[in-house]
């Protein structure tokens, strides 16, 4: 999936007065982005195109934009364009479309391709991804799904867990924003470990997106992102 979120005022991020991207088929991130007292978003038109199969060269990017928590616009973009997918958009067209909706933040979940450099440059420090291991361990190209958990168990690692990180030009190398620790049991299977990590993914991503909504992410002098506590702005983690 490919999720996008943005705001309507360029000077300050405000949960009530922003455009957001929510998962089209889950409630996990919507718990965070609907945390304000504004009315719940209404339903919207269905996607323009059916999802592509996993073997297709182009991906159907699911885009759902919520306007001030009142109206939902839902559509799909095929990216990248190719001879076999003439309706697909280029990286520049993808950036232009997101700019059209005044998008500020992009939230990735289950997006396995390398994010185009044009998108990274246009949304520097604004693209988040979640990975099912404690990065920098067990990350990079080829580490996804059960492959991650099989590698964790096979290595003898005692701990695993999800990582929320900013996206840069490489796989899983952006600055880490939040992590949760999950104990690896001695008799774990990849499926069992994946289920426990996934449970933590749902919690930590919601917490991070909530911090985004509330403008509680700050940057240390050395470029490391930190989250301000909701109860004490002087407390960083």
UniProtKB/TrEMBL annotation:
Q: What is its EC number?
A: 2.1.2.2
Q: Which GO terms describe its cellular component?
A: chloroplast
Domain Formyl transferase N-terminal as annotated: residue spans: 84-209
UniProt keywords (A-Z) are: Purine biosynthesis, Transferase
| Pathway(s) the chain acts in | Purine metabolism; IMP biosynthesis via de novo pathway; N(2)-formyl-N(1)-(5-phospho-D-ribosyl)glycinamide from N(1)-(5-phospho-D-ribosyl)glycinamide (10-formyl THF route): step 1/1
Where is composition skewed (Basic and acidic residues) in this entry? Answer: 8-22
Q: What is this protein called?
A: phosphoribosylglycinamide formyltransferase 1
Give the family, as the similarity comment puts it.
Belongs to the GART family.
- This protein's source sits in the domain of life called Eukaryota
What is catalyzed by this enzyme?
N(1)-(5-phospho-beta-D-ribosyl)glycinamide + (6R)-10-formyltetrahydrofolate = N(2)-formyl-N(1)-(5-phospho-beta-D-ribosyl)glycinamide + (6S)-5,6,7,8-tetrahydrofolate + H(+)
Q: Which GO terms describe its biological process?
A: 'de novo' IMP biosynthetic process
Q: Which organism is it from?
A: Musa balbisiana
- Where are the annotated segments for Disordered? 1-53
Query: Would the keyword Transferase be found if you checked this record's keyword annotation?
Result: yes
Under the heading Pfam families, the entry gives: Formyl_trans_N
The upper taxonomy is:
Eukaryota, Viridiplantae, Streptophyta, Embryophyta, Tracheophyta
| Gene Ontology MF term list | phosphoribosylglycinamide formyltransferase activity
Low complexity bias (residue ranges): 30-53
